[in-house]
Amino acid sequence: MKKMNAGVWAGIVVFLIAAVFLVQSFQFSYKSELGPGPGFSPVWLSGILVVLSILYFLESVSGKNAGSGEEWPKGQALKNILFILACLAVFLILVSFTGFVVSGSIFLFLLLFKAYKWYTSLLISIGVSIILFWLFDGVLGVSLPVNGLGF
Asked: What average pLDDT score do residues 13-41 get?
């Protein structure tokens, strides 16, 4: 049996995610009185993504892109990807308890501390989290998770 490359797995994962979004997008109305409704963009975008993921999967299976050098990450690259996924998981767990600003600051700090000095990483992560919270919650009116202190 031929070994499946990363493109095959990527095509499968993207297809599954796009299919879930496509099914869920039918819960929103496609049209409104003024034109396209809230379901218009999700239906089209996820539908296009389903088609593209199928085409990518078929191309990967047929071996047309076998010379592209697609391989699973190894060594440090794999460690970096797993570290980012772990940081994202920590953010998702903490956000409901500590609020967006605290969990966002921790998330950004963990991602930045390898590249910058600790105090620079801390200032950037806190600053960006506060600015994003202000932008979404204050300006755009999109409620973000908050802790007992209101941030």
From this structure: 90
106-127: b (≥16 Cβ within 10 Å) or e? bbbbbbbeeeeeeeebbeebbe
What are the helix (H) ranges across the chain?
Answer: 6-25, 40-62, 76-112, 118-133
d(C-alpha 34, C-alpha 27), whole Å:
19
C-beta of residue 30 within 8 angstroms of C-beta of residue 39: yes
CA distances from 122 to 97, 101, 105, 113, 139 (A): 20, 12, 8, 8, 24
pTM above 0.85, yes or no: no
pLDDT in tens, 32-87: 888 888 889 999 999 999 999 999 999 888 876 555 555 678 889 889 999 999 99
